[in-house]
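haha ok so turns out i had the wrong file open the whole time. this is the CORRECT one, sorry everyone. sequence first:
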Amino acid sequence: MTRAVPPSSPRPLVSHTHGHATYRFFHGDCVEVLAACAPASYDVVVTSPPYNLGIAYRSYDDRVPRDRFLAWTGEWLAAVRRVLHPEGSLFLNVGAKPSDPWVPYDIAQQARAHFVLQNTLHWVKSIAIDGDDAGARAGIAGTLAVGHYKPINSPRFVNDCHEFIFHFTPTGATPLDRLAVGVPYQDASNVTRWKNASSGRRCRGNTWFLPYETIQQRDRDRPHPATFPARLPEYCLRLHGLDRVRRVLDPFTGLGSTAVACTALGLSCDGIEIDRTYLAEAAARVEAQLGERS
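then structure:
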């Protein structure tokens, strides 16, 4: 169902509505689109921008001089800060490559002029757990290796199995719903010693194991060179606190994983994408998810 957009808002290329939630997709440069948005109009931003690592995007040059890339990064971060609620959250997913490991830190430094780094989360894509380390209750015999990773054929570097999720906020004082993505205590015998343990769950912490879903054909199932699974933005949104979310933003929407997560949670979401093909795929994914929930 197409939803009417107020005249003062930027005009989306595609718009859907489901119940009280709306999903709008804007084609264009995020800095330009956000300039037309009202201040403090978003509660949470979950996004993964280009890292300038030479990834083969369709409509974006991911190989530009580092100083120019970082200046542009500062521009879009300033634009996001203007439209973020004073108690909002920006969850910024950034990766690197072994031969250029400073990229996430350089990007984080650009955010320092506009945000406070409240939490640093680690998205673990693949992990190996030795049975002895897991403990007898886990029932693991030998070593359990789970998740997906891209092998690195180099005598200098180990396989890269994680990315950063920087949690930026305007003041560093944004309250969180820490148990919304909590985990059960492995040994419940001592929970009475902790005053906040009555729920039987604890904070998950800053390491999140979120593997990709297995795909059969890359061009068909994941036609974008740099995506994250929808569970990642879902965890981010739950951690922020769903009861304080009116509208979510992804200024680099790609295939729309943030918007897909919002459909599962019943949250409104705006996505901005410079490539029409990716944007159309994102809108189609959301439409398909809404169809399944109708």
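Residues 19-123+163-185+200-293 form a domain with the Rossmann fold fold (CATH 3.40.50.150).
again sry for the mixup
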